[in-house]
User: What shape does this take?
Amino acid sequence: MSNERNDSGAVLKLENLTMQFGGVVAVDNVSLEVGKGEILSLIGPNGAGKTTAFNMVTGVYAPTNGAIYYKGEKIVQNTPQGKMKKLYQGENADLYVGKRVIAPTPDKITKLGIARTFQNIRLFKSQTVFENILIAKHMLRTSNLFTATFHLNAKEEAQMRQESEELLRIMELEDVRDELATSLPYGKQRHLEIARALATKPELLLLDEPAAGMNPQETMELTQFIGRIRGEFGLTIFMIEHHMDLVMEISDRIHVLDFGKSIAEGKPDEVRNDPRVIEAYLGGAQDE
Amino acid sequence: MEWITRNLPYLMAGISVGGQYALIAIGYTMVYGILRLINFAHGDIFMAAGLILVYSATVMPMYLAIPLMIVLTVLIGFMVERVAYKPLRTAPRMSIMISAIGVSYLLQNLALYITGGLSQQYPAIPWISDTVTIFGSTTKRVTVITPVLTLVLVVLLVLLIKYTKIGMAMRAASRDFETSQLMGIKINSVVSMTFIIGTFLAAIGSALFFTNYTGVTPTVGAMPGLKAFVAAVFGGIGSIPGAVIGAFIIGICENIIKGVGLTTFSDAFTFALLIIILIAKPTGLFGEKEADKV
Amino acid sequence: MSKKKKMAWNVSLIVALLGLLFVLEQVMPSGSMLFTVLKKGAIYALVAVSMNLLNGFTGLFSLGQAGFMLLGAYTYAILTIPPESRASVYQYYDGGIVNFAIPVPLALIAGGLIAAGFAFLIGLPVLRLKSDYLAIATLGFAEIIRAVFQWDKLGPLTNGSNLLRSFPTFQSVLYPFIVSGICIALIVMLINSTYGRAFKAIRDDEIAAEAMGINLAHHKRLAFVISSFFAGVSGGLLAMYQTTIQASMFKSAMTYEILLIVVIGGIGSVTGSCISAFLFIACSEWWLRFLDNENFYIGSFHVPLLRAGFRKVVFAVVIMAMVLFYRQGIMGTKEFSVEALQGFFRKLFRRKSVKEE
Assistant: This one.
């Protein structure tokens, strides 16, 4: 059992995580921890493997090798198998050999309390703002097909709606409640996507480039917004972001990836001045 | 040896039918490769080709009737694309597939109207419907010609796609429809060309297919059409060699099943094969993998 | 409008409709084409709505509807043929192996359950497939089912490729209306529940739905099984309407027809499917009949081209035109309701009053 738990106190812990597609190692032996209430930003040049790392945490991909813990509990584990046994180029190939493979689907991960947003916004297009949030309440239902169809769950249904209304109010989206989600301006769509993730009542929120495509004004608003929801919902936040203003201002710690490998981790000021980080971001330019 | 002589007719019939399926399957696989559309009307165009020859053979000699049939069939294929698919180019995939089903419905009803619902006797095409004897079993010459002709046409097609400009444009369009448009490829002429080639081969396939068949009815195209589609999926949709190999496998298996005495299941078998391949290897034997980006 | 008021409106509308049908049946000759259309239309409305649940609301493009109708129809027929008629129906199979009959409503439900059971098994492998592959795989399954039911080894159960007949049928047009009505009401209630919202989420974006904690496999299977259940029930009704059935009736052309009904009504609109089912059946069975009449004169002008089959050509052209130029269908994704009707009239009158000024 000692293997299945890991009580370091971290909300999320990645351990020797490797993802290899064919012959390409996208994420190479990455280990990191996100503490309770913390905002950890994952940064790195394009193609560094940030989104791949996210997709392993959220169950979209099963890692080729490594393990993930959530609140001390092991939720993902894999070891190179089948064809990958021979092809594997990462490290620690035999660390998890013979251990149980754990690969939950994304919906199970969300049910554990890990919610996410997407790099390219994925709202429910034909639904209104309110319905987008209401859908997230589906996973918290106690009703079954029968009671739901015959409206025997009126109390729960009313509660779902009330909670969604309240969330709309907190997220300042009530004025667009009945508009189609896709008719909102871009910045608002981002807010809605975060609101929808919060409707699943998560403890850990994963934001995949929340400020992508935003202008400085919108980015500033978003920075405040993220800070605010962290306090209000008692969240731990793990975030990928390119806007350095946002990252430097809001992160408690920053983890830097380059070519799939971890190259630095620390407080914003430490990372900002780390020569390896500067090299990673500017190195390409010097070669030219 | 005795087993061989007993089963040779089925094997030969299988290879022959396989060749005919291959000629239809190429039309499916090329269209799917470029438009990502299951052209449900393709089987009915195949049926229309049969009917055209039935009617044209009554008023003119065969050496005129066959070229006319091919030209008219190609024209139908071209028109179907222009009228029913081109306006839906930016529509969701489901709409264009529904349009294809609509065209199929229209062609079948049109054929029903023209024929009055009666099966039309297919004319005997000289030389290829003559009887020949091979290894002690008698068959029509078409059985022997089909696989040869199929392979020749496929080789020509592959050369066309590999070495001509329009072939290169087709390959580009099937790899990335939007980008190839941005690169200045005239996408409409590429799509039209695809339909022209597809229906041309289907027209030849129909001449070979119906020679071994009792007659042409309005719904006769549906089954060979579906089977050819299955062959295309089996080989990996978008891949021409894949479609040809898939077609031969299906043609042979189907006739062996008939030989064993399970004729009821010869159609069902094809679909069982389809479902197995879709589950075991969804991209078919030679298909490329497509992944959803998150 | 309050919920209660809406409910009252809907109930009174339904009662009025059933009353009207009842009166019509008393005053009109029973052979009238109107009743044919109403009966068949009600059955097709149910199967179209069941297909819409899958294609329109869950975004699963399935073409297996005819197969599930076949299962429902055969289950119904096999379970209800009275034992004394079995010897003549199963004349080639010594009266068959089923020697009992169960009440009609139970048999209809059994038909639905058998279809749902098959859907569950078929769904295990095929629901993982994407859009058009799913369509072709379900189409394939329907064809396999049809072949299996014609197999003479199963003759003692299915009567091979021979007709099944002598089972109970309905006379009154109210019967299919009530059964279809109940089933459609159930589907609507499901769509309006939290499960319906989950289905729509899957239709809009599978990946996002999964990230919202919706178990894709489970919900797709639910939609597939429920849709097939109702297709099975409608198959049973169709058997009752036709009075005889045969596996060869349930070809993929039947599925295509149902799909076209759904498309014409509007993918994602229940009322659209219902309206379109009646229109479709009325056009194909009744209103366009004159086109098949070779001796059709307008005044003394002999209209050319008209002969058997022309009706279907015209019909197919109209459908093609709808698919191409009127893609959202009659209703789009909207629903017909008392409120919408009120709104429509209000707008109409407002416009009129503006004009008058």
User: Anything to note?
Assistant: The longest helix of chain C spans residues 216-242. The interface with chain A takes residues 186, 189-190, 193-195, 197-198, 200-201, 203-205, 207-216, 222, 268, 333 of chain C (CB under 8 Å).
